Here is the input.
Amino acid sequence: MAQNNQTGTPGKNLEIELPNEEASGTYSNLVMITHSPSEFILDFIAVMPGVPKAKVAKRMILTPDHAKRLAHALNDNVQRFEEEHGPINTREKVEIPMYRGPQPEA
Here is the structure.
């Protein structure tokens, strides 16, 4: 569990623990994003070829300000990755399978 230092100032001497059960990570190749006035919900899904059903592997719920900070941090990291490893090739249109959960809003 993350703890703040004694002064309570986030980011300074913040100790972060990575539990063993989370250390190997969770694979996801699809994320569905929905939002309300007070939160963003990210459902991380692993879609496997030839398998007609996919399951949400992780659900993250973020405040709007944290979602915006995450978007900026992810953008910065993608730029640094591409500077080091070259451009990431993406398809313009990605086919998204039918999803029966909350409808995404953009």
